[in-house]
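Listing 4. Sequential folding, example run.
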Amino acid sequence: MDSAQSVPRHVAIVMDGNGRWAKKRFMPRVVGHKFGVDALVNVVKACADRGIEYVTVFAFSSENWKRPAEEVSGLMSLAISTVSKHLTRMMGEGVRIRIVGDRSHVAPSVRSALEQAEESTRHNTRINLSVAFNYGGRWDVVQACQKAIAEGVAPEALDEATLSRFMAMSFAPDPDLFIRTGGEVRISNFLLWQVAYSELVFSDCLWPDFGEKELDAALADYARRDRRFGQVSSADASALVRA
């Protein structure tokens, strides 16, 4: 990979393993999520230090409502406490926060905290942190289609570029690198439209333990990839020319 492209512009992360991390330590699952937030804050700073422009994390999926009520309640409370605990630091680090997902079913207190994070950081430009909250990739495609229809886009005019304008992540380039921690090897309905050509890296590390060392390993893996986007590699192209 060309050195200019060796650092991804956009990294998407499924922060998996918080509950298992806590269970190994005989603690409630929500404690693992609290340590996971600390890991997120540190990883976002590390990404900014390495020149990454966009980070998108899966904080709460539309399927997570099926988890035990106590854990869901703890996650909602954590969203509020995270803003009060970490917002000043994130502002100082030049992080712009955006929330992507369906807010209509989120409690007003949680929605208010998320909106505060967005408003307080909207002038920051060092790195963009998108938090997928009550988000699902299939929901994203459906809501984009609904918006296109509502705007009167004709069926024959609805192509990939047009639909992309209505996606929840329309403000950002598609992720170059997709990281999932926790040892699971699946996308789990995260950014289904946007990760079509992302490089996938799966780590056995549980998210609260994910730090600069693990991030750099994922970035090194990414830098070794030959991103062809359906084309032949430059080496293969040269061979064809010589032939």
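-- end of first protein; second protein begins --
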Amino acid sequence: MSQAQRDITLRFLAEPHDVNFGGKVHGGAVMKWIDLAAYACSAGWSGRYCVTAYAGGIRFIAPIHVGSLVEVEAKVIYTGKSSMHIALEVSACDPKSLNRRLTTHCIVIMVAVDQNGQPERVPQWLPETDIDKRQHATAIKLMEIRKRIGEEMQIFVED
């Protein structure tokens, strides 16, 4: 078996069909790119088909212009039994200058599933560097926060 891949970077040019009515890349396109990178990262780590279970904390910091070179960086920061927490950063720049700026960041939780859609075990990831340990600890804190948010959101899904 080949070694699991913890991180991945997708690179491409923002195209005219990605633009909203304001002339900038629309948030939906950015969210699609985030989901694609989260999938590639989680599949690379787990060696399994993965589905998105949660996307949160998304922050749109700066606009992306058509023709920009876009980079979506994704890395595993926590693993559960079948889930993987993926930290994502989107940056963009003029391809002539390569002066990248952060445009968006978030956390996505992916779950490895079998052919019947049932969760499957994933390899455990253990932090080694100081930044990895801080991000891992933050992922654990965010789980508790999401639990509380989920409880508050119940009012919107009850009959």
